[in-house]
Amino acid sequence: MSYFRAIDPFPLESAEHTKLHEFYARLAGGRLATTRCGGCGATTWPPRGFCPECASDRFEWVDLPAEGTVHAFTVQDAGLPAGFDGPRVFAIVKVAGHRIFSILTGADPGAVRVGQRVALAPLRVADDPRGHPRWLPAFRVT
Known about the structure:
- The chain is mainly beta.
- The chain has one helix at residues 21-28, and strands at 33-37, 43-44, 59-63, 67-76, 88-95, 98-105, 117-120, 123-125, 134-136, 138-141.
- The protein has one domain (21-141).
């Protein structure tokens, strides 16, 4: 039996669909990036096309460190989205003062601990409707 997916659960990452496409391009290259406001200098997570502090829409891209620490996590065994095998470890990872909701890849759910060091390991997900690869931020335990 095959299923038809009526809704695409992944973001459209191309320049035609989002002005934040640079985030996905850098992620595909193994770099975690975010935006820094050109008005007040604040960095935000997730990357944004406007500043929540001063409402400026001028921004530049800055790379974040490729390592962080587990701030919190949970393990999900059932009810995972199509294409994801369980159990899946979801974590909030602290990187340069930002808290990033992410997946921990290759993690033993029973061995993950708060404070554990992790490294960026972008996760390739289903290609977009035109066949271009798409990525989500993910980390692996170091």
